[in-house]
Amino acid sequence: xxxxxxxxxxxxxxxxxxxxxxxxxxxxxxxxxxxxxxxxxxxxxxxxxxxxxxxxxxxxxxxxxxxxxxxxxxxxxxxxxxxxxxxxxxxxxxxxxxxxxxxxxxxxxxxxxxxxxxxxxxxxxxxxxxxxxxxxxxxxxxxxxxxxxxxxxxxxxxxxxxxx
Length: 164
Known about the structure:
single chain; alpha+beta; eight-stranded mixed sheet; 3 helices; 36% helix; elongated
């Protein structure tokens, strides 16, 4: 059975909405603490500033330009990752990667920890979050099966909490 496939991973709309909602709630908490309770607490303004900063950071993360990842898996289980922002991806682009320990496959969420295939001891790794709404319909399950097969080929599983 061949596990060759190509999947384009877009940022999840659900995850971006959750980030925006959480950022807005932090912003509202900052306004409430800053306006209503600065005289009651010694560090009220500091807490309000910290909440405001955290809320603005989350809102910025949720609203920034989307980064697309393309994961190419060959029939032999080799992974290539191409990362593009606001432009199309070329057919031959991509960096050879390997699935590192700490990757997680769950029924509705994949947290992929990918490292350079040339030098896995380098320490540099890339994290890719895959939710069902960030890939084409039907591709989530196929990607989970392919990654599970790749993890089975590696001596000692590189996937933690593998629940398929």
